Amino acid sequence: MSSHSLRQSVPALLVGTFSLGLLLILFSPYALRETSLFIYFMTITLVATAFSGYAVYRHQGMRRYIHLLISAGNLCFIAYFVVHRSDATVSGDMMLFIQNFFYLIMALIVITQSIEIRTLKLRTFDVFAVLSFLLIGALHIFFYSARGEQYVDSLNGFEEQMVLVSLYMVLGFLYLNRIVTSGQTFRVMLLIGILGFTTASIVNQLNGFAGIGHDLVHLLQVSSVFLISVSFLFDEVMDDALAHDSVFDYVIYSSVVMLFMLSSDRLLGTSVFDSMIANAVLLLLIRQFVVAKQNALISHRLHTVNTDLEVAVTTKAHELEIREQQYRSLFAYHAEPIFLFDLHGEVLSVNEAGSSVLGHDAETLIGSNILDIIEQKDRVAYATVLHDLTTGRPETIEVDVITDDGTKRVWQLMNIPMIIDGEVEGIYAIVKDVTQMIVQQEQILYQANHDSLTGLHNRYALQEQIERLIEDGRPFTLMFSDLDGFKEINDQFGHHMGDQLLQHIGKRLRSALLPNEYAGRLGGDEFIVVAEHGDDEILIERLRRLVYRPPYFMAGTLVEIHASIGIVRYPEHGSTLKHLLSNADLAMYKAKDKGRDETVLFSPELREDKEERKLLMEGLDTALEKGEISLYLQPQVDASTKAIIGAEALMRWQRDGKFVPPSEFIPIAEETGHIQDLGRWMIHETFQLMYAFEQGEIDLPKLSVNLSVRQLFDEHLIEYLTTLFDRFPIEPSRLNFELTETVAAHHSERVLNRILELKALGIKLSIDDFGTGYSSLAYLVRYPIDELKIPREFTMQLEENREYQTVTATIVAMARQLGMALVAEGVETEYQETFLRRIGCDSMQGYRYAKPMPLDEFVIFYMKQRQ
Prior knowledge:
The chain is 60% helix and 15% strand. It is built from 31 helices and 23 strands.
């Protein structure tokens, strides 16, 4: 049984012990009562002695000595019962006297150490001493008046002063327990037990009991002994209260007090006045010892504080010396240049790296001005930074500097104010040479915006330029060309010859264009030319004359090449880049249908019949009401494990029993505004589905849904989403909104604010079809995007086109550097899967894994995959 559980049982144990004894007294036959009570008293006392003996074993130091005294007193009480039972010649009262002696020493130790737990004003305990003194005096006078000389003969000063000390300690501890919580139950039980035992012993002396009365007094004594012995269970202080106390001090002091108590009635007499004087002297003697112990405690603490203070000062001085050495080492041996300026830029100190990078020694640089080595164009800006640093806030700036050998470098200066006593007294400037990084950034930017084969703008840069023209509302002509017979050239002469031909075409295109015309390569043998004018006939004539019709002489072979060209005009033939490219593509294929070297201007007839388009628009008006719109899910998997890591929610329209391709009705919905209602329905279904999954313990990590531009700019979007979160309390991080790249091209601040609002709700965001729309690296850094989706157009070209492999690998590397997740769409072949995994893209979706499927099929598919 643990001490904690035993401690909880102590109240019941005490009540049971007393009740059992009371029952024995009241209901035992008179002839057997004395024997049964003797056995009962001996059993309880032996158990109590076992408890106190265990306490001796468990504790150390002064605590062990306290419980040793309790154990010795209990043994005396056992001896008292044995002597009393056997009618031995040894006086039983002598055993009680010795027991009282042990208890008194123990009580004096407890009260003295308890007072020393916290330095208290003795005035409080003086009040309790006076109360004890007056109470004992009143009782003394009462008994003396009632019984006279008989009272004097039966009660000596020792027993009276035992009651006095016990009462004084109990009163003191009733107050002490209000402010000292540690071990309070232990002290109360201990002292109440002593008071009960002492009182019972004195009552036994004052009155000659017979029968039940005498047994009740013994029962009170036994209960008090048991209470004293089990009190250690509530002692929360396992160590000594004071390390410098010694048992010898208490033994000497207790012996003096005991001798005084034994001799006081003989020295002063037995009258009431003499007893009162003895009691007062006893209280003063106790108080004097407490004062002495408190003075010793204060002296010890003062010595400890002084020692600790000396150690702290020495340690602090050593720490300051170490910190100074650390600072010197950090400043002197730092790999990057560090300068210390005054507020005007004058160099006060410089480390070895700083002097080395400028080609001067430290003595030459100290006293010079940092502004002298900064190029003129950056001096004013840096002087402003120096002035602003007086506010105490660090600032970082990039400046161009000229070293001693005339080399131009770009420095990133991290300027940190040196603050002394609340005032900026100087400036630390940590130099980072970012010259090479800027060159690399420029190279990366060039590679990101230019086709590596032809040197023309790649599709990303060209699309960015077109989106900018659309945003500004400037009219332009877009020419989409595809080489005729290029596949035959590759088959006849090899891909190496085909690459050379494309390089030559790129050179001729650059030389044939005017300043307000732009050219780029989409991929393969597809080129785009954008002209900010309407003279498309003159442009076509110039391009055919300078680029497409002249023969090319390569590797000793004369090669003739022609191109089929489709033309669209903005805004006549489309309001978005996607529509313009789609219409230009239609016009280009119409030109191929007409034969080689043809040009076709887009016309509406090339699109679907207007009546069909009108029917689709009308059908969208009632599609939701008729329940024709449904939700399909396409799994997203980990290509390594084939485990489903998410799904994309897709919208499907079944009209008159036939499915309308999303590529047909989504653009119409965006133009007519139906996308707003369809989008809200889609988001609502997604929330409801995720909630049902979570309630059904279908642990789908992520569910993606497309968010259109109209939805993103809906002023009630956040309010609507908040309502859905309240209605369907799902985990926000499992919801992923897919945004198109064209979103980044419009209202950038507005887009940023809306994206931040979505992120505040905990929703994750991804860029869908990355690389097919507005492809500036800037927005990837600016917007908190979680995921990039590699478009199907790239994935499908991986097996045949190295350019798409390069671009896709670049996207993956860039996403990894920016800490973004990746999902490749349209994965259908093992080659595509293997290539994507090799470059670091493991999350994929496509027909290689699963097609889009209705909800019930998806759940069955998912549960089978989980098994």
